[in-house]
Specification:
- The protein is mainly β.
- It has one helix and 15 strands, in the order βαββββββββββββββ.
- The chain has one domain.
- The chain has one helix spanning 37-69, and strands at 15-17, 84-90, 93-99, 105-106, 112-122, 129-141, 144-157, 166-178, 184-197, 209-219, 225-237, 247-254, 257-265, 271-276, 279-286.
- It has a 15-stranded antiparallel beta sheet that branches.
- The longest helix is centred in the first third of the chain and has 33 residues, at 37-69.
- It is globular.
- The two termini are 24 Å apart.
């Protein structure tokens, strides 16, 4: 099922391209508390890293489950051939080590990774709630060093967003990111991803529809805290074949500054609207 979300790896990895000086906020101010384009870009690069590692961990959970159940056909890993995978059963826990090497290994979305991700989970795949844990060893994502840990809780259940039983994954985030220039960022938070359509057809990812909600706080090298909260769940349509949400609203807060990012009305496009201090501007999104 997770292999159907191949393009979702980058869907929340959105950088804001704004036609102004990178040190200016959208409303033209340059105060230390202003939300700037540079910060929005850095924040979204960390989103890309977190999402990619999550997808890899979930993919490997599904592959091990499929292997144990001797499932045939329809389930294939999203990992490239340059990744070496080792699976070991220790007591009651499966441990899968994914080694991307030291030269750089391209994921399907074009992001380049190096180093190892070590994923562990219970061998009991029949439990209704499954916890997937991972740790990183010398792991780089687009030349950024990623350190820390994460747990993913996987459930099949109903929710406020959908009465039918559907896949819901909750992601606990606690990572440190060192950019190539040496600047260090830290990120903590919770992200919940629900597959609200397409889960009955495991071999066709194009009919998948996701809703995503949650919040996180990113601490920048200068100590500023950049808090993001999804106010209206982000809607992801795989049929759009684009790495952007098509609707949903995110509230961004930095110190006393506040902004909202609105992804639109559901159309498959690269446009969004950012609003700061009552001033709105249409922007073009890029991954």
């Amino acid at each position: 099922m997770k292999t159907k979300i191949l393009l979702f790896v980058t869907m929340l990895s959105v950088a804001v391209f704004i036609g102004c000086n990178s040190n200016e906020s959208v409303d033209g101010t340059t105060t230390p508390t202003a939300i700037t384009a540079d910060e929005a870009v850095a924040n979204s690069e960390i989103d890309a890293t977190v999402d990619d590692v999550s997808i890899i961990a979930e993919d490997q959970f599904d592959m091990q489950k499929s292997s144990v159940a001797k499932t045939s056909g329809g389930i294939k890993s999203m990992l490239p051939l340059c990744a070496t995978i080792t699976s070991v059963l220790t007591n009651d826990t499966w441990i899968r080590t994914i080694d991307f090497g030291t030269q750089g290994c391209a994921l399907p979305n074009g992001n380049i990774v190096k180093g190892k991700i070590i994923i562990s989970f219970s061998k009991n795949f029949a439990t209704p709630i499954r916890t997937i844990s991972y740790k990183l060893e010398g792991f780089y994502h687009n030349d950024k060093l990623i350190e820390g840990s994460k747990t993913i809780t996987h459930e099949l259940k109903t929710s406020d967003l959908l009465a039918d039983i559907h896949p819901v994954t909750t992601h606990s985030i606690d990572v440190k990111v060192t950019f190539p220039d040496g600047k260090i960022y830290s990120r903590t938070g919770i992200r919940v991803r629900e597959m609200v359509d397409g889960f009955a057809t495991v071999t066709n990812w194009e009919d998948n529809v996701f809703k995503v909600w949650g919040n996180h706080t990113t601490t920048f090298p200068n100590g500023s805290k950049y808090a993001s909260t999804i106010k209206t769940p982000l809607l992801i349509k795989m049929s759009c074949k684009m790495p952007f949400p098509v609707s949903g609203v995110v509230e961004i807060v930095k110190n006393d500054a506040k902004a909202t990012l609105d992804y639109g009305n559901g159309d498959c496009d690269k446009l969004a609207t950012i609003t700061i201090n009552g001033v709105s501007k249409e922007i073009v999104l890029r991954k």
